[in-house]
Design goal:
The chain has 282 residues and is α/β, with parallel strands linked by helices. The chain has eleven helices and ten strands. Helices cover 36% and strands 24% of the residues.
């Protein structure tokens, strides 16, 4: 097993309160497979993924416990110096808003090269490697785009650049945190197709963070549904989509648009029914 997360708990502390953002979750990920972590905003999806590389604030602001085993090594206990070799090189991230991931003062080529210089001693010509990465993620005229600044690119192109940066270090795991939220539907499909192609060609594992079950079907091998800091249901994607057990999972699936199905109003999440089911489990 490439990654095993066991009893992960995340608590945020302030002067006046303590918030348990993640309440003891466990999941695993195999090489070359995709795990989708699905849930609404505030359910704990993103902080879970960021905790794997210890990108959250240090104690006492944030307390993280449990285990995140990458090839048997607990990342939560690694010294900072060793953890730097994991960030980017073993686990890379693609976030939902590409404009915040790119520095407006540097060309996209320079930003990809920075990642290569930090992690890839085997590269002889950084510019050639960078242009090759831009080609790989489907950017046309990569040779000329190499010298462009982020503001000269569309949202979809910037997201492709961010993916190229993530791929630069040939990671074992790519964490895609709402990678299509800021994009229109057509570009969303292109980005998901690109991620699927890269996963298959590079034998790379992907953790997809999303609130949208619609992009999970046909992309993820397994799914974990998060609600209020807990995983309420997980398993093979096809099985959960065909026969969801938890009320919250059912509610999320009802929100998937269906071709040819006309609705008078948007589906409503029955939080009362979900609360009753959670009470039974507790």
């Amino acid at each position: 097993m490439l990654l095993e997360v066991r009893d992960l708990k995340i608590r945020f502390n302030s002067r006046h309160s303590k918030v348990d953002a993640v309440k003891g979750i466990s999941f695993s990920l195999e090489q070359g497979k995709t795990l989708a972590i699905v849930g609404e905003s505030g359910s704990g999806k993103s902080v879970t993924s960021m905790s794997l590389s210890r990108l959250l604030p240090p104690p006492p602001k944030c307390e993280v416990s449990g285990q995140a085993l990458l090839d048997g090594v607990n990342l939560l206990d690694l010294p900072e110096r060793q953890l730097r070799k994991v960030r980017g090189k073993r686990i890379a991230y693609v976030f939902q808003e590409p404009s915040t991931s790119l520095n407006p003062y540097f060309t996209v080529g320079a930003q990809i090269e920075e990642a290569l210089k930090f992690h890839r001693e085997d590269v002889a010509d950084f510019k050639v490697e960078t242009i090759g990465l831009l080609h790989k993620v489907g950017i046309r005229d990569a040779d000329s785009r190499y010298g462009d600044y982020p503001h000269q690119m569309s949202g979809g192109m910037k997201q492709r650049v961010v993916i190229a940066m993530a791929l630069a270090c040939q990671p074992d795991i790519l964490v895609a945190d709402e990678p299509t939220t800021a994009l229109d539907v057509t570009i969303e499909a292109q980005i998901m197709d690109l991620l699927r192609e890269l996963r298959d060609n590079e034998n790379m594992a992907i953790i997809l963070i999303t609130h949208n079950f619609g992009i999970v079907d046909g992309f993820a091998d397994n799914v974990a549904v998060m609600y209020q800091g807990r995983i309420v249901e997980q398993g093979e994607t096809a099985s959960i989509l065909a026969s969801p057990k938890h009320e919250y999972t059912k509610a999320l699936i009802r929100c998937i648009p269906r071709l040819g199905v006309k609705r008078e109003r948007l589906p409503v999440v029955d939080y009362a029914a979900i609360a009753e089911e959670e009470a039974r489990h507790d």
